[in-house]
Amino acid sequence: MKSLLLMLLATVATQASEDRSYVYDTRVCSEANFQGVCHEFNEPVPYLSNYNLDNIISSIEVTGV
Question: Quick one: signal sequence residues (predicted)?
């Protein structure tokens, strides 16, 4: 799951750096159905452990890609 999220965030960051007209948001939560600890990102995040989300993400939503 962590690898998938990192790949997704890297893809979003690459696309955003190529064309700044795209606006994107990524919302991740520690529990299913967007419950528990949630964070929203609109820029690359190299270390999810800084947000206490390392290996615990159960739901994710990406908009604007």
Answer: 1-16
Inter-CA distances, 62 with 23, 43, 65, Å: 11, 12, 7
DSSP β-bridge partners for residue 35: 31
DSSP output for 5-64: HHHHHHHHHHHHHH-TT---EEEEEEEGGGEEEEEEESS--S-GGGGT-TTT--EEEEE-
pLDDT tens string 4-57: 666 666 666 655 455 555 578 999 999 999 999 899 998 888 888 888 888 899
Max CA distance (Å), the chain: 33
